[in-house]
Design a protein that fits this description.
By secondary structure, this protein is of the alpha/beta class. It contains twelve helices and 16 strands. The strands form three sheets. Strands 1, 2, 5, 6, 7, 8 and 16 form a seven-stranded mixed β-sheet that branches. This is GMC family oxidoreductase.
């Protein structure tokens, strides 16, 4: 394998790696991206067959510790009530995500100023606005512009149909006088940029065989590759090396045959998510960087933020959408910003679930004890199946240094690289927020006429959103990268994924992660002449 020096080396081909590759392609630099996964074949996705739900409990589990694909790495999350879920492939976790598409709010960038907690971001919402818009066009967003409690967006496609579940939820929210709105999604409601519209093959997680759900392997990457970016798959990076001047010189990686290689580069960009990025930095030790690369602050791996999910669900007499259509069709921002009378700071978003498939319903309801065995089994199942409504509070997680990613002293991946170890506890503030969300969710379900109400608190397999472990800031003692993603310590090293988040907000982060990646790429292009000063 030929490893000639490249101008820019990107590690990771997921949400942020794809966006930054596409944006930098117009510089005509030699750009190479390495990803430990490969190209996915939509013909093999679970939604092509009737056994799609069963596969979600095995080889298509959201947890790498369960599915154990060769591309995965193990994660020791025994010391966390929330388990890490991710996906390693071209497209990363956008292959598997639910395609829910909110943005962080302007207030999320100023929590220290507004509420006296955590830290303000070194940039504000306005700096990202053009990149949110650009990313919405590239990913292909469906939605209804004009939500009074959300940042203004201009989705290029109409919103998802309300279906059977939407009116039940909307009517309940209207009874309570609470905000609700059709949610933005990256599921196509019309043919768009070569993608076919949604035909309801099944739940959007784990993957969309129709190609209606935007994942970066079918959005950004075709454009980036046509523009000259090189993408090398099944290449697992072990560490980033530095030269005598303390600059990144390239990476050591294992190729598809397991052979160790060195890839030299002028600039290195990390896009490995909030767990993979600190793992790589902490494993990149040297005489100059004995505590891990770019870690003079000691904050690499610390301040890990998930979004604790508190979910309450119940069953209505009317039929719901079950597993048909994008599962999160509506959102509410009624409790998003701080109201100290609630007993906690910051707030949460509400996501509404349309229902669940029959296999999931059978398994979950048996576990909850509401689906009996014996004579009543089929009667009760008919009452439950296709009648579920769910309310989830996605709670803002404030940064705490004891929530962290370290290297496990024993567990290793298939190439002998130390696995990440997660230490995480839900804070007292988040606990109060979750309790508040559960109480409001119960009110919503009762207003919808639901019975057999059940709780998942927290959702254990809810560690989708991996944030904060290499935070951005202007003070090198309090942050890992500066306000445009460049390492304080290593001037030709950049990070573009969710690890650079300062705070987490109360919404899914993918839209903001990609807007940040595009913003950082734009800053790099503007500063090319003095990139290493």
């Amino acid at each position: 394998m030929k490893n000639d020096p490249v101008d820019v080396l990107i590690i990771g081909a997921g949400a942020s790696g794809a966006a930054v590759a596409w944006s930098l392609a117009d510089t005509k630099m030699h750009i190479l991206c390495l990803d430990q996964g490969g190209w996915m074949n939509p013909a093999e996705y679970p939604s092509t067959g009737r056994d799609w739900e069963a596969k979600f409990y095995g080889e298509w589990s959201s947890s790498p510790n369960i599915r154990k694909r060769p591309e995965d790495y193990p994660i020791n999350d025994d010391n966390s009530p929330i388990k890490v879920v991710n996906f390693n492939a071209v497209g990363g976790s956008t292959v598997m995500y639910t395609a829910h598409w909110p943005r962080l709010h302007p207030s999320d960038f100023k929590v220290k100023t507004l509420d006296g907690v955590a830290d303000d971001w070194p940039i504000d919402y306005d700096a990202l606005t053009p990149f949110f818009e650009e990313n919405d066009r590239m990913m292909g967003v469906s939605g209804l512009s004009g939500d009074p409690l959300s940042p203004l967006s201009h989705p290029p496609m109409p919103q998802q149909p309300l279906g059977l579940s939407g009116p039940l939820i909307g009517t309940a929210m209207n009874k309570l006088g609470w905000h609700w709105w059709p949610s933005d999604t990256t599921v196509a409601t019309m043919d768009y940029e070569g993608r076919a519209r949604c035909i309801n093959l099944g739940h959007c997680t784990p993957a969309c065989a129709q190609g209606a759900k935007a994942s970066t392997d079918i959005t950004y990457w075709p454009h980036a590759i046509r523009a000259g970016v090189e993408l090398r798959t099944h290449c697992r990076v072990r560490e980033i090396l530095t030269n005598k001047d303390g600059m990144a010189s390239g990476v050591v990686y294992y190729d598809k045959d397991g052979v160790e290689q060195f890839q030299p580069a002028e600039v290195v960009i990390i896009a490995c998510n909030g767990v993979g990025t600190p793992r790589l930095l902490l494993n990149s030790v040297s005489g100059k960087f004995p505590n891990g690369l770019a870690n003079s602050s000691g904050l690499v791996g610390k301040n890990l933020m998930f979004h604790p999910y508190a979910q309450v669900y119940g069953f209505v007499k009317e039929p719901t959408d079950s597993n048909r259509a994008p599962p999160t069709c509506l959102w509410s921002k009624e409790f998003y910003d701080t109201d100290l009378s609630r007993g906690f700071v910051r707030g949460y978003g509400i996501q509404f679930g349309r229902g669940a498939g029959p296999v999931f319903e059978a398994v979950a309801s048996e576990q909850k004890g509401i689906l009996p065995w014996g004579r009543d089994h089929h009667r009760v199942f008919r009452k439950l199946n296709g009648h579920r409504l769910a309310v989830s509070a996605i709670c803002e997680d404030l940064p705490e240094e004891h929530n962290r990613v370290t290297l496990d002293p024993v567990l290793k991946d298939s190439h002998g690289i130390p696995a990440p170890k997660i230490d995480y506890t839900i804070s007292a503030n988040s606990r109060k927020m979750m309790d508040h969300g559960l109480a409001r969710g119960r009110e919503i379900l009762e207003a919808a006429g639901a019975t057999d109400i059940c709780i998942n608190d927290p959702i254990p397999w809810g560690g989708w959103h991996l944030l904060g472990t290499a935070r951005m800031g202007t003070d090198p003692a309090r942050s890992v990268v500066n306000e445009w993603g460049r390492s304080h310590d290593v001037k030709n090293l950049f990070i573009v994924d969710g690890s650079i988040f300062v705070t987490s907000g109360g919404v899914n982060p993918t839209s903001t992660i990609q807007a940040l990646a595009l913003y950082i790429a734009d800053q790099m292009k503007q500063r090319l002449a003095n990139l290493f000063d």
